[in-house]
Structures are given as C-alpha cells and as structure tokens.
Amino acid sequence: MSIISKLKRPLAVVLAAFAVTAAASAVPMSGSDTPLLNSITAEAATVSVPKVTGLKSQTLGTDKVKLTWNKISNATGYQVFMQKNGVYTRLISIYSNTNSYTVSNLPAARITNLKVRAWRTVGGKNYFGPLSDARTTATNPAKVTNIQSTIGSTSIKFTWNKVNCTYYRIYVKQADGKWKGLKNSTTNSVTVTGLNPNTTYTFCLRSWQTDWSKQDHGSVLSDNVVVKTKAASTPVAANGRLSVKGANIVNQNGQVFKIKGMSTHGIMWEDFRNILAYNSLKVLRDDWKCNTIRIAMYTAEWGGYTTGSTYAAQAKARVKAGVENAKSAGMYAIIDWHILSDGDPRTHQSQAVAFFKEMANTYKNYNNVIYEICNEPNGGVTWNGGIKSYCQAVVNAIRQYDKNAIIICGTGTWSQDINQVVGNRLSDKNCVYALHFYANTHTDWLRNRLKSCYNSGLPVLVSEFGTCDASGNGGFNKYQTQEWLKLCDSLKVGYINWSAANKAETASAFKTGTDLRSITAGTSQLTDSGKLVREWYRAH
Ligand code: IDC
Fold first, then answer.
1. Pocket mutation for ligand 1, best pick of 471, 476, 503, 529 (most atoms within 8 Å of C-beta)
2. Nearest CA among 183, 184, 192 for reference residue 158
3. What CATH number should be reported for the domain holding residue 195?
4. Which atom of ligand 1 sits closest to the CA of residue 472?
5. Does residue 9 belong to any structural domain of this protein?
6. Which one of 14, 111, 319, 518 is at 20 to 30 Å from 66 when CA atoms are compared?
7. pLDDT, tens digit, for every residue of 153-209?
8. pTM of the predicted model, to two decimals?
9. Catalytic annotation on 376?
10. Residue 58: how many CB atoms within 10 A of its CB?
11. At what angle do helices 278-286 and 309-328 cross, to 10 degrees?
12. CATH code of the domain covering residue 428
C-alpha cells in the first residue's frame, strides 16, 4: 500500500493498515494501536479521540463521491474506509485536519458504505477515534445511449442499451421547456401511451441507481429523442376509450370528442343490417367522416328482440357482427335497445337487464362499445316516474362487468325531456342523456332546452336525429337541420343521424335500391338527406 511509504511511523502504520470488518467490535475503536505497552506513558493513556459525526456525501458523476464531515479539533488527520464485499478497507490516511475527501475511480452505479475516523498523534504515538456511522451512497449510473423507437399513432415503444442501474425513467419535454417524468422501467424498454397522433414529441431517458438508504442517484440525461407519432388510422385508434367529463364526451386524453355517426335502421328488417358490413363502415368512416355507428335493435316491433327467441338470437348475432366490424374499422359502436311501441322501458326491463349483462360481459374489454339502454321512452312515462329506476337497474347490470363504457340513457317523450334529468342524474359518471330531434318537427323550443340543460352541466348526446318530420317521412328541412347541427357543434354535443338505410322514406340517407353491403364514396347513391348529412359531417 502506498500509505506505508507516506506514514512517518512504520510500526503504527503496519497495524493501522489492516482491513477492518463492518462489525465495530472488530475495529480498534480508540486508544493506542501500538503493541509496545511499556512505552505508554500516563499522559498518553488519557488521550481519547472522539467519533467522527456529520458524515455527508455528494455524488460527483459516475466515478466520484465527495465526503465531508464535522471537524474534530486537535485531530492530526483522518482515515477514510470503504466497504467492499462486506469488509471496510482503508482508502486513505489524510495527514492534516481536512474534513473532506473525494473518493475517485469508482465504477458507475457503485453502491457502497463509507466511514471515517480521526486520529491524533501525541508523544509520537497515534491514537484513533472510533469509526463514524456508515454513510451509504452510490455513484451515478451511466448515460442511456442507443435509444430506438417503434412509433404508433398514440404510443411509442423505446428500447436502449442496458446500463448498470436500478431503474430507468422516461421524460417528455413540455410546452414550457421543462421535462416531465412519464414512466419508470426496470428493463431497457418502455412503452409510452396516450399520445396524440401526428404530433412531434421530445423525449429523453435517465438511469437511476437506488442506494441502500433508498436515495436515488441519476445519470445525466440521454440525448434528446425527437419523434412524430403516426397519423391516426381510425377514430378509435386515435381516441381510445371515451368517457364523460363535465357536460361533454372526451377521448382517452381528456380532450372533448364529438360523436358523429349514422344509425342503422332496424337490423331485423329487410337488408338494413347490411350497412354494418366492414366495407360500408369504412366508407362511412373515410368518406362521411363518421366515427360512430349506432346499431338499432328494435325490441317490441315485428321481429324485435322481445318478440320471440328466434328473433332474439338473430338480433343478437347481428349486433355482434356489427360490433366486430366496427371494431375492425376502428369505429365506435352503439348497441341500441330500441324501444318504441313498448313506450315504458320497464315493459321489458328483465330482458333488457339480461341482454345488457351479456353484452357487457362480452365487450368489457372493447374500447369502442357504447350502450344505449332505452331509445325513446314514451306514452307518458317520466324520468322520475319510471325511466330513472329502469336506467339505474340496467346501468347496475352493465357495471357488474363493464366498468368504463359510456351508457346513453333515454329520456321521456321520445327522448326530448332531458330537462327532467337536470339535478336528478344517475350517480354513474359515464352516463349521458339522450336528446332526439327531427328537424321539421322540433325547433327553437327544444334547442333552447338543449342549451339550458347543457349549460347546467348535463351531458347530452343527440343519439338520433332526422332531417325531416318525426314520422321519418316528409318535411325535409335543410335550414332547421343546420340550425340544430350548428348549435350542437357550438356545444360540442355529438349527433347520430337516422338512418343509414335505403328505405323509401325521407329520413333515409341512401336511395332505394342501393346495396348497403358495399356503399360507394361520393354522393351518387345519396338522397337529399344523405347529401346534407354527409356534407355537414365532412365539414365539421
Ligand atoms: C321509424 C322508421 C320507419 C319505421 C318506424 C316504426 O323510420 O321506417 O316504420 O320507425 O318502426 C324515432 C324512432 C325511430 C323511427 C324514427 C322516425 O327512434 O325508430 O323510425 N323516429 O319515425 N323517433 C323519432 C322519429
């Protein structure tokens, strides 16, 4: 050891240079270390050197640790020990009363314990104080390098070269230029999710070593990684699971999301279910700019869900096929329990509860499914007089399985009485309340109701509207339709048009004879209603 050549008294040095174990009892805590007992004078026997206190450390980069401690007056010098393989080994003897020392040439991310003791030389002999309490520390881990990214539209996977450390943390640069920690990983890979499509982000990584006292020591930041997410391929890919925030629907990032959709006609009738074909959904998505398809399953009308087990099985199979195609197309799918002639939703409450339990169990992990639990209560039933209790029962059934999906609750008078819900909502946070309008029948008075309910904080969705009379036939009204859609846009309230059908009635978007399995982009197959709705959807 080089220390030997530095020491003035070789005999004392030889004895002091042993490695002391972590157990304090194995270390000469004080007194003289000379074996020459006959040389100890009475004066020397009284020399006691206090224990070093206030030992602090400061990590300097990947290879140095600076120690400081409280000075002991009269100390001749200090010795610094470092734990290696459980044994404290002396690093240095300092020959002055200097209360700091920088340990250098350490490997990166090295965790260790350090101790210091003081000594005095009196009458030519060295007297050692006890070892200080241990100070735990670590050098910083190495910088993260060679970062690779796999880029999606809303997520990015990063991998990098491993370094010796406890964990890694990824940071994103915020608008104010500050780094925000996003996620930790104990492996050399992490996936950041919830990003916006088609957006440039700056990331960096830092490795962290946690020492035995649970202090973290961070590396320098990696080089910046500037990446642009891909453009979103579908509405669901871009927005993920929807939820309710305030009076609006929001996407997975909490940004207001406006549902723009088409409703099927009754899926049990004629060829109306064919619009649920994947290719037709894609046209609605890409050419019409729809993000949602509503699957209208009548309950009481001829062939409806409650009219016989064969019809029920058939309807369910068609709903499921539609949900799967919507999922493939990245569109939101609304499963609509389309009450109409059954008026009071409680008429078929037990069937509705069983149906939605099954749907919720089937689709609990789908992020594109929305449940509409009673299309249009009518026949005098009010929110307090029956609709609310029905909705509560069905919501409870759905929530047994699906904790997150949005649930649309119908309101009285064919889903016009949203005012009855204000101040009297269900406690479930992801419920919205249906307002339906037919532009030639419902005008300013119902728009005013929408405004006041929305302004009071009620989350409203126009889960069905027509451009014509409430009968679905006659009275095409472009002006009133645009007044409605303008208002909805200003409130960011979503809307779904009745209907993506080819029936010979004004509300149909497609001309009679159109093959709904393979609709084409553009307007050649469209009715006046279809043209108006498509044009609005493309522009808003
Ligand atoms: C209409 C259809 C029509 C059908 C009728 C009865 O357009 O072809 O014969 O249902 O089954 C609603 C209902 C919706 C109606 C629509 C138009 O939700 O089922 O569809 N409408 O009357 N509420 C207000 C209007």
1. 471
2. 192
3. 2.60.40.10
4. 17
5. no
6. 14
7. 889 999 999 999 999 999 999 999 999 999 999 999 999 998 888 899 999 999 999
8. 0.65
9. yes
10. 12
11. 50
12. 3.20.20.80
